[in-house]
Amino acid sequence: MKKTKFQKPTGMHDIIFGDQKYFQSIISTVEGVSDYYGFSKIDTPILEDEDLFLKGVGEATDISEKEMYTLKTKGGDRLALRPEGTASVVRSYIESGMANRPQPVKLYYIGPFFRHERPQAGRYRQFYQFGLEVLGDSNPVIDAQIINIVYSILTDLKLKNISIEVNSIGDKECRNAYKKTLVKYLKSKSSLLCSDCKRRTKENPLRFFDCKDPKCQAVKAEAPKIIDNLCEDCHSHFKQTLEYLDGLELPYQINPCLVRGLDYYTKTVFEFFVTTKEGKSLALGGGGRYDYLVKLLGGKETPAVGAAFGIERIMQAMKDMNLIDGPKSKDKVFLAQIGILAKSKSLVLIESLRRAKIPVVESLGKDALKIQMTKASRIGSKFIIIIGHKEATENSAIIKNMETGRQETVALDKVVSKIKKG
Ligand code: AMP
Questions:
Q1: Which of 102, 238, 248, 410 gives the lowest tally of CB atoms within 10 Å of its CB?
Q2: Distance in Å, CA 283 to ligand 1 centroid
Q3: Domain boundary residue among 320, 340, 360?
């Protein structure tokens, strides 16, 4: 294709044509399900103080180390394009005094996020996520409910072959003790680790479990797991969460190596996958509990749990399964017109059809009937409405049933009821 003068930035994309159907159906499903479960929508700025993410997401994470888009404003503030949603939601929870409202506070968001990643299939530099957050409740039933709500969203979208992985990464007490055990183990295997994991051993040892390098896999399999080192409180929280998931009959499995890429998680963590037609596993999203984040960002200690899902990934899975069946084109009525007066009457008639939820296709800008009829037959509409010069002056229209070949002239204000009758 010829290079145009301007192209979209590397790793970014337009959502156009058929993709919008998928995009919109995800948005409306997220809105409908979140609303049903009592979540209120929150929209936060795309830009935030850079430190919010450095602190919130953690300095020794891929996001903070290499993926953040940052800028210095003319006033000298250092801002970042948001790489994820939770830190912004927590900032708003603290700043707008949501802690003084009845707890828990349940919020959801949908919007664009930015990470300066190496562009590759399914990985963009601007991508959309939706997320749900429950702040102010430590009960494991909420962990299970969040997992169930996202499962409901995905199954309402008719996605199949979904699997859920869960783990617990403990709290301050047991994780710190466990980290020491892990570091000791990793140091003893240092010669077998990739250079990234050697660094992680010092900076953020749990991230070792995210390593995909084949070199580290054997060390991973033998490594002590956090799930076997939980304190009593974390153990019973996890056990209870799993029991609720069992009650919901959700397709989950425990993955003792699941730690998630962000620093703020405590106790429950989870990830959702879908198996594509080619048998590949596609990560759709994940989440977990983050009981220390509100305090870390300057609020009171507040238990919380949430989830974030990638909308492009869900679109990809839906396309892979051919899941959208919008109105079939044959259900759409075609409206043909001849002349200025007929065009004017058509504009009014389309409004009546829209209010009656009858999908209509037209070619208002065209004058020749032949061109319009060719388009109508390409669409395969069952009904064609024709407003010619005569009909326009008489306030009527011809309705042609293309299946039976019958046609009749009806008053313009009877067109909708006639089409509805079929
Ligand atoms: P994370 O917050 O990193 O766990 O991301 C949650 C979900 O967002 C992932 O499972 C993906 O579905 C999606 N996601 C994250 N990063 C990207 C990206 N660069 N491009 C597209 N989707 C992404």
A1: 102
A2: 8
A3: 320
In this structure, the residue with its CA closest to atom 9 of ligand 1 is 285
Q: Give the CATH number for residue 242.
A: 3.30.930.10
Strands across the sheet containing 47-49: 47-49, 78-81, 70-72
In a domain, 154, yes or no: yes
pLDDT tens for each residue of 188-233: 999 999 998 998 898 889 989 989 899 999 999 999 999 999 999 9
Cβ contact 372:366 at 8 Å: yes
State whether 248 and 163 are in the same domain: yes
Q: What is the rounded CA–CA span in Å between residue 131 and residue 306?
A: 7
Enter the pTM of the model.
0.90
Q: Which residues contact 20 (CB under 8 A, 6 or more apart)?
A: none
DSSP string computed for 274-331: EE-TTS-EEEEEEEEE-TTHHHHTTS----EEEEEEEHHHHHHHHHHTT------GGG
Please report, for the domain that includes residue 333, its CATH number: 3.40.50.800
Q: How confident is the model at residue 327 (pLDDT cuts 50, 70, 90)?
A: low
Domain shared by 241 and 294, yes or no: yes
Q: What is the pLDDT of residues 309-326, one digit of tens each?
A: 999 999 999 999 988 765
Mean pLDDT of the chain: 94
State the sign of the Cα–Cα–Cα–Cα dihedral 59, 62, 65, 68.
negative
Any residues with Cβ below 6 Å from ligand 1, and which?
84, 115, 117, 123-124, 127, 129, 261, 283-286, 308-310, 312-313
Range of the domain at 259: 18-171+231-320
**Secondary structure of the chain: what % helix, strand, coil (to 5)?**
45, 20, 35
- For the chain, the domain total comes to 2
Regarding whether 239 and 147 lie in a shared domain, the answer is yes
Q: Are residues 257 and 124 in the same domain?
A: yes
Domain shared by 313 and 372, yes or no? no
3-state DSSP of 193-225: CCHHHHHHHHHCHHHHHHCCCHHHHHHHHHCCC
Closest-CA residue, ligand 1 atom 16, reads 123
Mutation to probe ligand 1, out of 10, 123, 269 (largest number of atoms < 8 A from CB): 123
DSSP per position, 361-399: EE-TT---HHHHHHHHHHHT-SEEEEE-HHHHHHTEEEE
Residues 286 and 407 both lie in one domain: no
C-alpha Rg value of the chain to the nearest Å: 28
